[in-house]
Amino acid sequence: METANSVFDFEAETLEGQPKNLADYRGSVLLIVNTASQCGFTPQYAGLEKLYRSYKDRGLVVLGFPCNQFGAQEPGNAAAIGAFCEKNYGVSFPMFAKIDVNGDNAHPLYRYLKKEKKGLLGPLGGGAIKWNFTKFLAGRDGRVVARYAPSTKPESLTSDIEKLLRESQG
Q: CA-CA distance, 17 to 115, in Å (whole number)?
């Protein structure tokens, strides 16, 4: 992580158990979200899917990272998570294997994201993720440009996403 320059320097396991190099998304605008199936914010899956479908042809990719660290709100295994997302929200954006976003076992991608955008409490909070559905927006160059609170509705991100899509069209 110390040498990481962008989100493209990381690899994560897909929900299907396959390694995925995030460099495969190079050239895309990324919205990276830690998700949970039994959270008050879970209905945001619908908004995330709508963003993905609206902007994927212009280069937006939403990446979902299930996490069970907040109120044990993601207790299921990969199959249960995938079935829930598909059945209840028609999720078609890439979903990854369940990870930790805080603590000693935090996924290296999340260590990097928190370092790049510290969040509400800044250095005092150590950049810790406070709850499910914290969102990070990265440009086509893989640099993290924004962090949004769990309560921030996906649809409120459209102007930031559109700006990044326009800026980076070349």
A: 27
- Prediction pTM value: 0.94
Coil, helix or strand for 157? Answer: helix
Answer yes or no: is 170 within a domain. no
Q: Is 39 a catalytic residue?
A: yes
| Parent domain of 37 | 7-164
Give pLDDT tens digits for 40-72: 999 999 999 999 999 999 999 999 999 999 999
132: left (phi over 0), alpha (psi -120 to 50) or beta: beta
Per the residue annotation, which of 31, 33, 39, 129 is the catalytic one? Answer: 39
Q: Is residue 37 part of a domain?
A: yes
169: in domain? no
